[in-house]
Amino acid sequence: MLRSVLALSGCFVVLLMMSVPAAGQAMGEAAAAASASSTGAAGARSVGKSIGGMFGKVNDTLKSTDHSAASSTTSTKSSPRKAGKTSSPPQKSAPPAEAAPAPSYEDAMRIQKGIGYEELLRRFGPPAMQIAAENDAQTMSYIGKSGAVQLELRDGKVISITVMKSGA
């Protein structure tokens, strides 16, 4: 019994003695990693400062443009003042003309073989994607109400139509 207690206590002492160098090794590696990360952080800090400075300049430019536009509109408008009365607030300018309504195109599912490029654009609008290839060949994609349509054009005419139905 005494022998096993001595063997166990010896193992414990060896374990304690080996843990000190292991802790030192771990601390050394942690310090090396921390120094590497702080070096990278210093570089990132300077990048952050330069980006912040750039946005600050843009902000200053926008503010000066707003003030100059506001001062030019108030200086050009003058209202006659009557004695003893305060001036009325400046008149608001007329609202901008309403934008033209978006054109209404036909459903892309109605595209047929043989239709020309110009008629395709007029009836179905611009494609969602268009890829030009050699020999006057093109691939165009339209998004219809019930799926996507992929067209192949050659010499300005639709030669192939692939309909991809939506999964919903």
What would you note in describing this structure?
It is a single chain. The protein is α+β, with helices and mostly antiparallel strands. The chain folds into 2 domains: 1-74; 108-165, Beta-lactamase Inhibitory Protein, Chain:B, domain 1 (2-Layer Sandwich), CATH 3.30.1450.10. The protein is built from 2 helices and 4 strands, in the order ααββββ. The chain has a 4-stranded antiparallel beta sheet, with no helix packed on it. A hairpin with a 2-residue loop joins strand 2 and strand 3 (147-154). It is elongated and about 100 Å long. Residues 74-79 have low confidence and may be disordered.
List the helices and strands and how they pair.
Elements: H1 2-76, H2 117-124, E1 129-132, E2 137-144, E3 147-154, E4 157-165
Antiparallel strand pairs: 1-2, 2-3, 3-4
Oligomer: single chain
The residue-averaged pLDDT reads 74
Largest sheet, spatial ordering of strands = 1-2-3-4
Helix-strand makeup class: alpha+beta
| Rg from alpha-carbon coordinates | 38 Å
